[in-house]
Amino acid sequence: MTVLKTSMRSFFAHKGRMALSAVAVMLSVAFVSGTLVFTDTMGATFDKLFAATSADVTVSPKNTKGGDETPETGKPESLPASTVARVQKADGVKRAEGNVVSTSVTVVDKDNENMGSTTGAPTIAGNWTSNDRKSMDITSGHAPRGPTEMMVDADTADKHGLKLGDELRTVAVTGDIRAKITGIATFRVTNPGAAVVYFDTATAQRKLLGATGRFTQVSVSADTNVTHELLKKNVASELGAGAFKYQTQKETADASREDMSGFLDVMKYAMLGFAGIALLVGVFLIVNTFSMLVAQRTREIGLMRAIGSSRKQVNRSVLVEALMLGVLGSVLGVGAGVGLAVGLMKLMGGMGIELDTSELTVAWTTPVIGLALGIVVTVLAAWLPARRAGRVSPMAALRDAGTPADGRTGLVRAVLGVLLTGGGAAALYGAAQAEKAGDGSMLLGAGVLLTLVGFVVIGPVVAGFFVRALSLVVARPFGRVGRLSERNALRNPRRTGATGAALMVGLALVASLSVVGSSMVASATDELDKSVGADFIIQSDMGQPITPAVEKKVRASGDLETVTAYKNVKADITAPDGKKLDTELSATQPSYMKDLRRETASGDLADAYAKNAMSVGEDFAKDHRIKVGDPLTVAFEHGRTAELRVGAITKDDTAVDQGAMYVNITTVKAHVPADRMPLNSIMFGTAKDGRADAAYEALKADLKPYPQFKVRDQADFKQTLKDQVGQMLNMVYGLLALAIVVAVLGVVNTLALSVVERTREIGMMRAIGLSRRQMRRMIRLESVVIALFGALLGLGLGMSWGATAQQILALEGLGVLAVPWSTILGVFAGSALVGLIAALVPAFRAGRMNVLNAIATE
């Protein structure tokens, strides 16, 4: 009880000093809790949608693909309409209804604006059925009754300002559907962002499937007292197991959830990873806070020991303070996390993924995880300072208060830091020299971990050297004030090292990702310059296959010398070693050899375009002992089995089409029925001499009615790559900003506690003539030097990580190392600004001190 009272008295006596540490704990826990609430809410929203839209039992073709994956033919798998009548005969069936559902469509308005989401949510087209009435209500107009009528969901109508009577054009594989909106239907549950349009059944069959008398699935409703499992069994008995797939409502919802789980898991664990980084940075802040508080209370602790307190009691007293800090910060963090989740939902709404805040999902595990994480991390971070406090001797009561307890950095720290850093450097070197990307990635992970820990350990050892070097440029030009700031930074290397390490972690990640991102762009640009001979590339950014209408327009362009189609054809290959491999062939025309220049390890690529021939990649050939002239047994999906001769083996030292297996489109057509031929996934065009500009403008004009497809010349393509990488990096930098904010709080806290620790010293300096302005400048210079010290360590470490990662990427064809010096120098300069900002409050407090009161402080 005495320990608890002492701890509480000390905690509230230093509540101002604890505040920033509590904020650091709060921010870290808030990010973890917010991530969990946000992803749980998103998961629950999709679960409700899937449950509401799934029939009691769904019958679909056996080879139907899951999720929103667009089939290569552009038309979904279907089954004969007669299946509906057969299902209706099964015992326990209340109603069987044929559905048409397609995600291979794009809906555009009169201004040629795409109605669909650009964030990955699909555009879904189909026929209006009784099953849809389970999850939607027609709130305006009526369902479509003919080929010129359609219905849209209310969310899409609101987002794009659509109303009854507006005409929309739906682009499908079989052609365009022009129809006026005659109805608007509203979801009873939250629609996370899909655009949904409905047609009458005959139009949906003819335009979406290309055939009448076909459906993509049959929705089955159960009679009263018939379970879904029994209904599924009865329907399967009626139809047989051969050509159909049967799923209960739960199985359909689970399958849809599984399709979404990859996206949700990536988002969840990526955000938790950044929360972990912020938490790691917060550890440095907490360690520093308690180390300095223990140092400032040396005399007080010595008196406690002198009057009978044991080491365990002193140790426990500090840990109880940490426990109180952890509880306070964690409770605030869990609450802030809910607010953060709401903010993320609003942000996602602006990006096209709609989530309703009224459906906010806070699982019981979220506050438990948040509280446990914050409390455990805080107590563990305070453990070393607590041990140090327990070692304080009763003789310390005779010393002045505020005597630093850290002492000189020990030899053990130096040796351990060198060993860890050396081991990490060796791992990074091994990763750079690896021959396989998988081996290199494992060594890279080990190298990153070891060098990071090594730099944290060795930071106080090298602090003196770096602080002196930086002070020569930053502090000493300000004369004696600058020298005083340098000495203050050097006074306690352990404190300076820990404060710099907090900034180091975040900036190391910024630097490494900048190097990797710049290298990816530079490598891809270099590869395009060396390999791509085509003038134009036509494709959909959403992965949709090129429709026949678009292909026809491209081929009709009079300014193009050649047009090359590129199809992805799925097939099973039986290699000479007997292994059967599920793979994908790149079916192109011989002109592709000029569109993309590929070097061969053996053979002539032209021979791979001969009748019943193909090429394989160098690694594939080595793995399966394949050589030019060997026959391969190829079973085409939806087609016949053929024996194709290996005409060439291509080198795998390129990032474009690495490992691709080329085959002539005519060979594929000979073995795959016309109605099962995949559509083009991408097309290439080469302009006639002197007609490049005219061809470019003509193609863009011709494809303007199809906004889902982009025409890019090589300059456009390079810019697109740069923009995509830039967007990814900006998102990562935004998430890393939390770690930087926590690190800034660490600098503020260190300086604030340092000012308190040096109260008497500051009073003496003021008494002998140091002005308030000079005092503030001294604190600011000290802060800038510490911030730049952390930046130097972080940027140097991060560039070494990034350079190593690039060497691993070089194995995948990305062989150009590019260091974004403008970003690196900008971050370094920004660190100085961070130091200035962090010093504002401590410098103001130091300058405002009463001289006599400061001198009288014990």
UniProtKB/TrEMBL annotation:
It is found in: Cell membrane. Residues 19-235, 499-701 form the MacB-like periplasmic core domain. Pfam families: FtsX, MacB_PCD. Residues 58-95, 111-147 are annotated as: Disordered. Residues 65-75 have a biased composition (Basic and acidic residues). The chain crosses the membrane at residues 269-295, 318-342, 362-384, 411-432, 444-475, 496-516, 731-756, 781-801, 821-844. Residues 114-130 have a biased composition (Polar residues). Residues 274-394, 735-850 form the ABC3 transporter permease C-terminal domain. Its main location: membrane. The keyword NADP does not apply. InterPro entries: ABC3_permease_C, MacB_PCD, Macrolide_Exporter_MacB. It is a multi-pass membrane protein. Belongs to the ABC-4 integral membrane protein family. This is FtsX-like permease family protein.
